[in-house]
Each structure stands twice: as structure tokens, then as C-alpha cells.
Amino acid sequence: MAGHITDKGITELGVGLISVGWMGKLHSRAYQAVPVVYPELNIRPRLVHAADTAPDRVEYARNVLGYAKGTTDYRDVLADPEVDVVSICAPNLLHREIGVAAAEAGKSFWIEKPVGRDAVDTAAVAAAAAAAGVTTSIGYNYRHAPAVERIRELIANGELGRITNVRAVFFNGYASEPNGALSWRFKKDLAGSGALGDLLSHVVDLMQYVVGPISDVNGLLSTVHRQRPILPMGQATHFAVIEDGELGEVENDDYAAALVRFAADSPAAGAVGTLEASRVIVGPQCGLGFEVYGTEGSASWNFEQMNELKLALGRTGPNQGYTTILGNASQGEYAAFQPGPGNSLGYDDLKVVEAKKFLVAVTGGEQRNSTIEEALADAEVIAAAAASAVDGQWHHVPTVPGATFGHRRETVGSNA
């Protein structure tokens, strides 16, 4: 078991951070919140060593976030004997290199999605993690929303009947401005795919976690804004707007869609669905949502109203249609944050849940965290969609051993 147990029975875990951007800050705050939100775990993360190529971010990690040490070389973090677990929040192109290096250093790691630019990158990280026997966790934070966990439980318990079809989208306007900067996210060698890997991967993960494994895919890709003003690496963010700048080519997709079939041996055997994602849409701000339809009922959720779910049960009777259910203690990890129903959780809270699940797994507890095997299964769906977008054919998704999405390795609905 990782970490050090104090004389008070508290497990202390030394944390390393690689890349001190927005997500790195969020991981750090999540680690710090775990003992406050989950005191019963007796787990206390300690911020030990942070790395970033920008010296000012290293100083921020030390002086503001509270890391004891800082460096401009991520290898220093991996070599630090005081570091038990590592958060990898670097850009996509570095995920394979750093993920493999973390595994080879024997460090369990929490890595942001997508784990690599494509399924090949992700498979390399998965192989290294398996060889080293380290615990992994992936940044698919939306699956931790209490309403999402409740819908998953309803499906697993058969309360919606046989699942017939799903519709899921991630419509985000972060790149809707044509003068939005040509950041690394728009370059194939740096990001891999565009909306397909960045946004549709969240949709795919949600559907495989909530409904069941996807077996077959037919994909479609489109690029809407084919040129953008150039932004040097490491300056500002992909939200930056540049007027009258030098233009460069957008190399990946702005919009992605897929028709999907769910596996014959899954809880949703025979079900079909449509998945969509866009990074240039005007209107939705963070429009991630899904609808699941069954023979006995249906349920829907979207992130912009994260603390609500809509539920319809039964085909007949006087109360047909959806009922809106507010967040409450029966839903996932809600009770750890709020004492009564109707209070709201936020994006940051989902990262606290993610940190909790990762640290519980690292210390030998229940494995409810997203794993590298599940990330590879998501990447295989994305790869099948990309291949289908080229040839227009249906593509079968290879099965990834160990990618259970919790359907077989836990008791659904457990809040442990």
C-alpha cells in the first residue's frame, strides 16, 4: 500500500504534480479537500513536488498552492522518493511520454483525458501501467455527478426496463469565436483529434459507464473554422482571442458524431444511440448531456443543470411525463458535500470525488475509480469513429480486458 501511516492511523500520501495550469490547480485543490470532505477515510494528501516548464507557474505552485518543492523538469517529480502519487495535467502530446515514465518510476498516477493523442498512445500507457502494477485514474469527472450515478443505478436495477436507445451530446462553444487562438488543441501532432477526442471522449465514457460497452461505431467529422490566429505554445489559453493575427491551419475536427451499437453482452444489449460533440457551437456553453430510453421509462441529465435529473417511470397512469428530481442524499456522493436536498454541487466538487476514488484505490480500498483500461476502451471507440469518418463504414470496437466500467467489479449504487 502506498503512503505512510502515522501514529494516529492516518495514511499520508506525497503528491506530485506535472503541469500547473488550470487543471493542475484543480487537482491540487481536490487533494486538499479530500480530508475535509471525507475525514472518515483517514487519508491526508501532502503537496510535495510540482513541475512546469514555466518558472512563474513553478513559483505559483510553491507560494500559492503550497507545494514544498518546484522544478521545471517533470522527471524530478518522478524521481522524488517523497512522491507517492502523481497528477499528470500536461497537454495531450505529452501524456504518453509522461504516463509511461510515471509507471516505470513506480508512481501511481491520475492523468487527464484523453490519455494520449490516440488509441496507440493510450495503449502504450496502459501496457506500462500494467507492467509496473501501479494504480491509475483518469480525468473523466462528469461520471461522478450525483444525478449521473443515480441514472446509472436505475439502469442497472432494471427500473427503466430494457434500454432501447440513447442520445448524448457535448456541445461546447469554447472555439466558436473564429479569431480564437490556434492553440495546441487545433494541431494533430499536439492534440490528435479535435472535438472527437476532446469532447466526444467524455460522451463515450459517460455512455459506457452509465449504459454499457459500445461495440460498433459509424462516425462523421467536420471542420467549421479552417484557419485561426497563431498562439505561441505556453502563452495564454485556448480561450484567448487574437485580432488581426497571422493565420494558421486548423488540422482537426470541430464537430464529431457517431451512431453506436451497444455490446450484446452488456446491460444494454441491442440498444443503439447517437453521440455528438462540437467545440464551435453558438449557444450551449458546457452542454454535456444525455437521454436514456427504456421499455419502462427514461431519464435525462445535462451538465448545465448538473444538480437535476429528469425521470419518467411507467407507460400508463395519470402522471405521464418527466419529473424533475433535485440533488439529494440518495444520489452518488451528494451526501458527502451537502446535508440536505436541493443544494448544488459544482465542477470542482466532481474533481474532489475523483481524487477520493483515486486515493482510496491507491491505498488498497474499493476500485471505483476510472482506470487506464477504461480509458483505452474509450479511445478504441474514438479510433473506430475516426476510421469510420474516412471510409463511411461501420467499425467494430475491440474489447479491452479489464475495462468493466464498474458493471462487474462493484455493487452498483454503493457509496463506499
Automatic annotation (TrEMBL):
Pfam families: GFO_IDH_MocA (PF01408), GFO_IDH_MocA_C3 (PF22725). One of its GO terms (molecular function) is nucleotide binding. Transmembrane segments: none annotated. Gene3D superfamilies: Dihydrodipicolinate Reductase, domain 2, NAD(P)-binding Rossmann-like Domain. InterPro entries: Gfo/Idh/MocA-like_OxRdtase_N, Gfo/Idh/MocA_oxidrdct_glycsds, GFO_IDH_MocA-like_dom, NAD(P)-bd_dom_sf. The keyword Cell cycle does not apply. Residues 14-140 form the Gfo/Idh/MocA-like oxidoreductase N-terminal domain. The keyword Oxidoreductase applies. Keywords: NAD, Oxidoreductase. It comes from the Bacteria. Residues 149-299 form the GFO/IDH/MocA-like oxidoreductase domain. SUPFAM superfamilies: Glyceraldehyde-3-phosphate dehydrogenase-like, C-terminal domain, NAD(P)-binding Rossmann-fold domains. This is Myo-inositol 2-dehydrogenase. It comes from Intrasporangium oryzae NRRL B-24470.
